[in-house]
Each structure stands twice: as C-alpha cells, then as structure tokens.
C-alpha cells in the first residue's frame, strides 16, 4: 500500500516571517519549496524553488509539514489536485497530478542491503566533505539571510535526520509501525544544541560518518524474523536506500550559504 501513496516531488525548507519579507510573499503561513524534482508532479505543474504553498486540495497549508500530510489523505498517485501558492507577491493556482511512487528493487539479504546503503552514504558524505573544502568556521557559520540556515546549521539538521532514520528503523524492527510519513519540526533550539555539542565542521561531519556506520551496521544485523515480515522489511529497506536523497537535497543549500559568506 505504501506505493499507492502519492508523491509531490518536492524538498521543502523553513518559512518564517523574515523569509516571507525577503521573498516578498504577503503571508507568513505556508510551506516553502526548496527544490522540486524535475520528473515529478510539482515541477511538471510549474512549481519552482521558493514558491510557498498555501492551499492544497482545498485545505489550508501552514508552516507545519503535517498540514501537507493531512491534505494528501485519501489521495493516490495519478490523482489531480488544485494547488494555490505564492511566487513572490503573486498568488497563483495550478492543477497538479500527484506522482506515483517508484517501485524499486530491494535486496532481500541484510548484508547486501547494508552494502548498497553504504555506497549511498559514501557518495553523500563525499559530497558534503567537498562542500567544506577550504571553508573557515566563520564562513560555515554565516546565515545568508534572517531565518535561513548557515552551512553548519544544515549539517546539524542532517545529523538529526540520520538519528531519526535509525530511530524509525528501530521502531519498525521492534514492531511499531508508523501511520504517517510525518517529520519533526527543525526546532532552532535543537539545531543550536547540536551545534554546541560538536563545536565545528569537523565534529559535525565526524558525527554524520559515525551515524552512517551505525545505520549500516544495524542493517547488516537485521534479524531473520524481521526479514520474514516482508512488507515491513521492504518499506524499511526502501526508506534507507532513499534516505540519502534528503542529504543531496541540502548540498546546494550548503553551497549557497557558503557562497553568500564570500559576498
């Protein structure tokens, strides 16, 4: 059933009154698109970076990602919905066809699953390392604009995300099945607490590597009785294989934050 769930094909980012003013958007509640995926419904409908969704399928969209989850309830891939959004000060309406989820090939041996996930981690971690080559701590701390993350704050967010992946995996292996693809709130206090714990870019990157090692080791050790729960195993394996797409969605954000520090 998970592959009947629709996909918007967007990565989202924070939206605050400060960001609204910077974008010229006349509302402070909504979901801001960080990047639409070119092969999916949002991009095909004309949605672009920094568009702010305010209504979806006739339901209001707020700063809480859960409002999008609620608006999608009862819909499946291939359905059409009306989307209302702001592009700067201009309010627009489009009809979007919700994308169907791809059905990937999943390895049924935990060791092979761990190997494939390891390869994805190696690729994403290398991309992050490249972002910070020659970058000073001051540059990594620079916030491009009020309410926008610095490169280091984005790393802190990625650390918290990796912890969530591992916690979710622990839940499903233990028999707790989540009812929705909900997500945390990117609380500034939590982001800043992570920054304080690891101090510098090297420490943040080292923690990401440690979490990658932990996740891969967990996958390699998945018990046979969990693998036998085919639906649960398939969903968990798919999520872990796709997890690093989230990291890559933030690589350009990190590069942009660092570039802004050079201006």
Description:
The chain is an alpha+beta fold and 263 residues long. It folds into two domains: 2-97, PDZ domain (Pdz3 Domain), CATH 2.30.42; 110-261, Up-down Bundle (Four Helix Bundle (Hemerythrin (Met), subunit A)). 51% of the residues lie in helices and 13% in strands. The chain has helices at residues 17-23, 41-44, 66-72, 110-131, 137-141, 151-173, 188-198, 201-220, 224-227, 230-242, 244-261; strands spanning 10-13, 31-36, 52-56, 59-60, 80-87, 90-97. Strands 1, 2, 3, 4, 5 and 6 form a six-stranded antiparallel β-sheet that branches. The radius of gyration is 19 Å and the shape is globular.
Keywords:
263 residues, 11 helices, 6-stranded antiparallel β-sheet, globular, Pdz3 Domain, Four Helix Bundle (Hemerythrin (Met), subunit A), alpha+beta
Summarize the structure.
Helices cover 51% and strands 13% of the residues.
Poorly predicted runs: none
> What is the CATH topology classification name of the largest domain?
Four Helix Bundle (Hemerythrin (Met), subunit A)
Radius of gyration: 19 Å
Relative helix content: 40-55%
Within CATH, the superfamily of the largest domain carries the name dinb family like domain
Content of β-strand: 5-15%
| Count of DSSP H/I helices | 11
In the residues, how many domains can be counted?
A: 2
Largest sheet: 6 strands, antiparallel
Order of helices and strands: EHEHEEHEEHHHHHHHH
How far is the first residue's CA from the last residue's CA?
49 Å
Number of strands: 6
- If you average the pLDDT, what whole number results? 89
Task: Note the overall shape.
Answer: globular
Quickly name the level 1 CATH class of the largest domain. Mainly Alpha
CATH architecture of the largest domain: Up-down Bundle
Query: Which structural category do the helix and sheet elements fall into?
Result: alpha+beta
